[in-house]
Amino acid sequence: MQKPNSSHGPLAGKVALVAGATRGAGRAMAVELCRAGATVYATGRTTREKASEVGRTSETIEGTAELATEAGGESGGTGIAVAVDHLDPEQVRELIARIDREQGALDILVNDLWGGDHLVGFDKKLWEHDLADGLRVLRLGIDSHLITSTYALPLLNRRPGGLLIEITDGTEESNRNYREPVYYDLAKAAPLRMARALAEDAKEYGTTVVCLTPGWLRSEAMLDTHFKVTEENWRDGCATDPHFAISETPVFIGRAVAALAADPEVARWNGQSLSSGGLAKVYGFTDVDGSAPDAWRYIAEVQFAGKPADVTGYR
Predict the structure, then answer these.
(1) What is the pLDDT of residues 182-209, one digit of tens each?
(2) Average pLDDT, stretch 72-79?
């Protein structure tokens, strides 16, 4: 059996699975968990040999694992890349069997599975939306999470203290509003309900389940495709949308996940909807620039209120 590292990081000896770790938030979460000393299995569909339907070849799971292992250099954290389609139950079953065989435990599961943005018709009503694309969105955003949790939870529940983090877009409060179109609304509301339900299912085993959202995420695609900027000059994107000023790097939610995983009292959050900005106030971490953007409060109080863009007091 391949044993977890036993170095001195706060998550030393812990085993994590970040399902959907190719890029964006998932990549950052894998990196930050490794930085804290965990052994992290990073899964996804895009490898150096084959791209997923998302169509981006600039980020791969091998690249994520290498970045994660590099970040874990001082703490002993290690990244392990595994190509998995989480809509294939047999592939997920084999993944969990491998983790059990190599590590004998699973302490942290992050369901960051998505990859459906290219299928969403954001300006379409239900009857105008391509039906096949819409149903695929639900498969990617809901079924993948359920399949992964079905196979992973028995291992996660094996010893008390397990942590399952569902990742979505939006807090429970913000998602009371319609997140058009209907397929996107359903896909992003479902993880909130999954966390609430699985928190009850897993409570007797000492497992904590939460739902976590980033704010306005400066993912690779958001930078190079939507705003056509880089991380170095990202503020130029504010010329396109002034509210982009509240955006955050993927590192911010990565640090939120690492903080939750290292919290001995994480069970206080069981079943709850959490955000990177909200947890920063509790745990004291910041984004890479030293700020702590509270995006969802800003979106409600400034952007949706129709006020001019001004992040004063929000980051």
Answers:
(1) 999 999 999 999 999 999 999 999 999 9
(2) 96
Q: How many CB atoms lie within 10 A of CB 122?
A: 10
**Cα distance between residue 16 and residue 6, in whole Å:** 14
Q: How many residues can be counted in the chain?
A: 315
User: What number of CA atoms fall less than 13 Å from residue 299's CA on the CB side?
Assistant: 18
**93/147 Cα distance (integer angstroms):** 9
Per-residue pLDDT tens for 223-265?
Answer: 999 999 999 999 999 999 999 999 999 999 999 999 999 999 9
Query: Which one, of 218, 253, 290, lies nearest residue 29 by Cα?
Result: 253
Q: Which of 143, 76, 147, 92 is nearest to 116 (CA)?
A: 143
What are the residues whose beta carbons fall under 8 Å from the beta carbon of 95, sequence distance 6 or more?
17, 41, 43, 82, 84, 151
The one-letter amino acid code at 261 reads A
